[in-house]
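Predict the assembly for these two chains.
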Amino acid sequence: MDLSVPPDITFVVLTTITLLAAILALQAKELIYGAISLGISFIGIAGFFVSLDAPYLGMLQIAVYVGAVVVLILFTIMLVRREEADKEEAGEGGEGAAGLWIAGLLAVSIAGVAALAGPNLPISPPATNLPISQLGPVLTGTYPVPLIILALLLSGALLGALVLAKIDR
Amino acid sequence: MNLPTTPAELLPFIIAVVTSHTFITLVIFPGFIHLTVVVMFLTWYERKLLARIQLRIGPLYAGGPGGILQPIADGVKLIFKEVMIPYKADKPLFLGIPLALVFLGALPFAVIPFGQHWVIANLDVGLVFIFAVTSLFPSMILIFAWASNSKYPFLGGLRSLFQQVAYEIPMWISALSVVMLAGSLNLVQIVTAQQRIWFIVPAFLSFIVFFIATMAELERLPFDLPEAEPELVAGWYTESSGAVFMVIFLALYMKLYLMSSLITVLFLGGWWGPAFLPQPVWFILKALVVATFMIIPRGVYPRLRVDLLIKVGWTRLLIIALANVFITVALLSTGVLSAWGL
């Protein structure tokens, strides 16, 4: 994106929605509102995909994350009885501070990397609307290694989830 | 089109806006007005058809032939009824979700081609768009059921969620063979590819699976467990009344029309038909025929048991849908269909 032009209105609106919904998802007192705002935040991310000329990814983002993951979260929330959920007290506040520290560090490091490497980055090729039929060949032909790493990461996450779920049995 | 600067330019500007293609497709056809009229017609049509199946007369007195103005009378009645919000219900969600349901029901019509040029948004990923939007229904229904703060809606909402999530899988897998046949996810191109042969012929098994899964998605008999009257009063919308009920009702019939349109697009050749009728008329006629076949079981069949519902979904439909993917691949690779340009 050319930085000399004023910021894209779509980008600003999408960013605002996504970030506000994400904050609300963490801060909502009623868990179900948190889940709904998480869904809205996911839809905002799908909007980014669409505005980046990747409508297919955007649609799948909605279908998978909002259609399936949020349903799972909603379901979990509803299975927990309300009294139990209310009894759950917030932490002492130390976690929030730690989270802020980590977020700040991350932001500073990203900004640092961008500031150092930004001017030297190669100009990215113009976003072309990749036809969906080319998606498979590109993924498996041009980028096989990232795909395999992603697959390993996903199976690692799956195994981790299994281990976590098995702990108290 | 420039914005008007003087009052004298206002009238031509309005005329230019109203006669523009965007305005016509969005508001009149296939947009807002067309949807409202067809959905209202469908509510009357279902009542009349079921009545005739059960040797009753059905709506009769609300004006027009056969009481065809009944939906308007129903609407006026429901609007003026009291909206009762259950004790300790989640008010914003209880009132907001029905509106979201109508919005989600109407949104996919933006990509459905009612004719070669009668489509609001010719999206390249039209089918995935519909898939994405309809996958939001179950969560909305569950949230609404939860917000009612009552046990019958909640049980109905859970059943609805399980059923819709389970039947989404065979439904979209069976749509896959259509995508392979047409070589595109664009609904306009899918219909264009059916100029010489409707996909119901090469993908007949897909059509059957898609139709059955659609019935389950729509929670229509014999799959209406989420609103089983003897057990759950009216299922997930038990607590809705007055205008809230009307909006949910509209959303359900909107979804019925959406799914029959989708079947028309995927399997029945969309707008194609003999040239003596315009393309959109053919499309709507086909969609109404599909809707008829979705309504008739309600007057004929009993409800499925829960275990049978699960069994049909996972051990029959899914297997057939998966097998059909391979059949389609075989048909395409052996070139049997090349006579029809596929």
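Residues 135-169 of chain A form one domain. Chain A has a mean pLDDT of 76.
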